[in-house]
């Protein structure tokens, strides 16, 4: 079997990405806890999406920060779900604002967060591609 060269996703520039995901994990978790505990009846759908976003950001943070066989799959899954979520929720929130009487992290493509929720999954996917395991070339 050929040796495999691996670069961890939480090293080098990946540390900044992990930090950004960590900040979003804390922010989305805090926001969803407050919304669901104090205002759940006002907008249950958007607040449930805030909780989902929080879970996705926590999973992405763990997946990118930890260097274990399972963590890369977790990161791919979480960042993929994040990308689909921000695109679907962003589109729905602009197409039918009645569905979103209050903002979520992903509504308006992350407008309330400087559109970073829209950019972040593309950065995450690019980093996962850049750090993917490659077969080591035999030395001559």
Structural account:
- α1 packs antiparallel against α2 and α2 (44-65) packs antiparallel against α3 (69-95).
- The protein is built from 4 helices and 2 strands, in the order βααααβ.
- By secondary structure, it is mainly alpha-helical.
Salient structural properties:
140 residues, two-stranded antiparallel ribbon, elongated
How would you sum up the global shape? elongated
How many DSSP E strands? 2
Count of individual helical segments: 4
Q: Rg, please? A: 17 Å
List the helices and strands and how they pair.
Elements: E1 4-5, H1 14-39, H2 44-65, H3 69-95, H4 116-130, E2 134-135
Antiparallel strand pairs: 1-2
Helix pairs in contact: 1-2, 1-4, 2-3, 3-4
Quick overview:
The protein has 140 residues and is an all-alpha fold. The chain is 64% helix and 3% strand.
């Amino acid at each position: 079997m050929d040796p495999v060269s691996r670069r961890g996703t939480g090293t080098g520039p990946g540390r900044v990405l992990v930090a950004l995901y960590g900040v979003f994990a804390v922010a989305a978790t805090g926001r969803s806890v407050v919304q669901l505990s104090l205002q759940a009846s006002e907008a249950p759908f958007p607040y449930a999406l805030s909780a989902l976003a929080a879970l996705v950001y926590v999973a992405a943070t763990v997946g990118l920060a930890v260097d274990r066989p399972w963590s890369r799959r977790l990161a791919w899954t979480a960042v993929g779900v994040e990308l689909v979520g921000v695109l679907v929720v962003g589109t729905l929130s602009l197409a039918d604002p009645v569905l979103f009487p209050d903002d979520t992290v992903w509504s308006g493509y992350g407008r309330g967060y400087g559109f970073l929720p829209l950019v972040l999954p593309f950065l995450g996917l690019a980093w996962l591609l850049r750090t993917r395991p490659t077969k080591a070339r035999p030395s001559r």
